[in-house]
Amino acid sequence: MTARPTHSAATIYRIPLLIGAVSAIGLASALLGDGVWDALSWLTLTVPVVLAAVHWQRSKASV
Amino acid sequence: MNTRSLRRWTWVHTWTSLISMLFLLMLCITGLPLIFHEEIDDLFEQSVKAPELAPGTAANATLDQVLQAARQARPNEHPLFIFWREENPNVTAIAMSPKLIPDPGQFANVSVDTRTAAVLGQEPPHFGVMDIILKIHKDMFTGLPGELFLGFMGLLLVASIVSGIVVYAPFMRRLDFGTIRRSSKKLAWLDLHNMVGMVTLVWLLVVGFTGTLNTLSTPMFDLWRMQQLPKLLGPFQGMAVAAPPPLDAALAAVRARLPDARITSVTLPTAGRFGSPQHLVVWTKGDTPITSRLFTPTLVSANAALDVTVPDMPWFLRTIQVSRPLHFGDYGGLPLKILWALLDLLAIAVLVSGIYLWFARKKFFAGRTATAPSRATAQPVLNSEQA
């Protein structure tokens, strides 16, 4: 494997920051109301769960 | 960041995690069934439902008649609380204790039809599996000290997460987010720990911190009661326990004072610390999504005057109240509870992989340094393995 250029802190933290922001929206939205607000929280909090599963699966497939 | 400060952050991450690890694992595991405690309770306890009334049945019972019916059902016991559940309309529940000052949890629940004052069912006091799990989760059967100890473990979790964010960067300089290297078992566990840790970060931070806040609610509430209530209740302390005043009139007085509030429960005059010997404590909540999380106690004098007093609730108690659902995940229906459970399982994966990495560390650092190694010095090793 050839050495790749190193990532900057901004690159490293970009995706975790996005996931964090999406999770925070989900945690707050169900507090603010019912119906649409609940649905928004289900949608957004599915993101971290699905991402964990996808990355795990992808690594298994690449072996 | 220089190597020295990175080493410090690594030290913080290692030790906050190690100290709190076993307790956090216990909290995650006991927390899993607790997320679904309502559903599990419903499964094992047949909840009492109000029947359809035949046309023409008199359905105008007063709350005083309802209470009287409960007293007649258990004539040797003392009614302590009256409460209503939104999911169970037309049923009034009355908690009765054989002792004037009850032992915690030792209540029988009498369910009475709100409309006809007919007794629908009685549930003797019991201590079920879910109560045991809750007790372990809350204080490990050690009362307030255990509760505060677990609160401190929650603070260590917050420190562990924050330091984990800092020490994450050096590992990822040459990796894209979510990469799990399968070239060695240790690398796979490390990458899994990093990936799942980042994914669950905000959720775990919020659940951990609100858990810590919850552990403070008992002492905070006691503090408030000691500071605030003596002014109101001081003159009444030690007085004989009054007979309940006319309840329907008392609740009407509270509704007149707080028109937007919904009444959730009533504590009858009692010698116990949770109420007053000479007042009804009427608990109310708001009727908007946010204010429905805020409970406000009102005091109604147990005499003909029915004076209503609304004590000020300090901001820290309000904060704790609003933060409670964020710990329990019970504020967005069953789908949110399922997501809560999945995120909890991911948190367990972070903990377990963290434990693995600690035990496998010797292999990481073999031949690198004889003194206490840190993750910072591990980085070149990992990269050379990758290269």
Overall geometry of chain A: flat
Count of individual helical segments of chain A: 2
- How many domain regions of chain A? 1
Query: What is the C-alpha radius of gyration of chain A, as a whole number of Å?
Result: 16 Å
> How many DSSP E strands of chain B?
8
Strand fraction band of chain B?
5-15%
Order of SSEs of chain A, N→C?
A: HH
Principal-axis shape of chain B equals: elongated
Biggest interface: A-B, 39 and 42 residues
Q: Quaternary status of these chains?
A: heterodimer
Gyration radius of chain B, in Å: 27 Å
- Helix proportion range of chain A: over 70%
Distance between the termini of chain A: 16 Å
Give a structural overview:
The complex is a heterodimer of chains A (63) and B (387). Chain A has 63 residues and is mainly α. Chain A has one domain (12-61). Chain A has helices spanning 9-32, 36-61. The radius of gyration of chain A is 16 Å and the shape is flat. Chain B has a domain at 3-24 and 141-216 and 334-386. Chain B is 54% helix and 12% strand. An eight-stranded antiparallel sheet of chain B has the order 4-3-2-1-5-6-7-8. Chains A and B meet through helix 1 and helix 2 of A and helix 5, helix 6, helix 8 and helix 9 of B.
Any key phrases for this structure?
heterodimer; A: 63 residues; mainly alpha; 2 helices; B: alpha+beta; eight-stranded antiparallel β-sheet; 11 helices; 54% helix; 12% strand; elongated
